[in-house]
Amino acid sequence: MPLLGERLFGSDFDLDASDAEFRVGLRLWWEAWKQVPAGSLPREDHRIAGLVGLKESPKKWQQVRARAQAGFVECSDGRLYHPIVCEQAMIAWEKRGETQQT
After folding, report:
1. Distance (Å, rounded) from C-alpha 38 to C-alpha 83?
2. In whole angstroms, what is the distance from residue 58 CA to residue 73 CA?
3. Residue pLDDT, tens place only, 47-96
4. CA gap 68, 93 in Å, rounded
5. How far is it, in rounded angstroms, from Cα 102 to Cα 97?
6. Are 69 and 29 in contact (CB under 8 A)?
7. Model confidence, pTM
8. Residue 96 to residue 83: CA distance in whole angstroms
9. How far apart are CA 80 and CA 72, in angstroms?
10. Which of 18, 57, 71, 98 is the most buried (most CB within 10 A)?
């Protein structure tokens, strides 16, 4: 998954998030990148907390949850999707197809 530093470090997320919220947010993006479908997360709070290593710290998860999940939206399949992570997954998928054709 590309970091897109220019976009990330110029974002409201970077400006508004605490260090902990930013770290957990990045982990959420990374975990979403690896999920099927790519760019998504399960909707259940305990599952998401587990993905970012906070399953045993529900209080900490609740403290960072709102800001860390910024940008994720629930879709009709009941999963949470992040538009930028999905956009990058589609680009990667298209590039994969291009390299397989050559």
Report:
1. 11
2. 21
3. 999 999 999 999 999 999 999 999 999 999 999 999 999 999 999 999 87
4. 26
5. 9
6. no
7. 0.88
8. 20
9. 6
10. 71
In the three-class reduction of DSSP (H, G, I as helix; E, B as strand; rest coil), residue 10 is classed as: coil
21-41, pLDDT tens digit by residue? 999 999 999 999 999 999 999
Q: Which two tokens stand for residue 18?
A: 């605490």
Count of all residues that appear for the chain in the document? 102
What would the DSSP string read from start to end of 28-88?
HHHHHHHSSSTTEE-S-HHHHHHHTT-TT-HHHHHHHHHHHTTT-EE-TTS-EE-HHHHHH
Question: Residue with structure tokens 């990374």?
Answer: 30
Residue 75 token pair: 């879709």
Tokens describing residue 30: 């990374």
Give the C-alpha separation, 93 to 13, whole Å: 26
User: Which residues have CB under 8 Å from 78's CB, separation 6+?
Assistant: 43
Owner of token pair 């770290």: 23
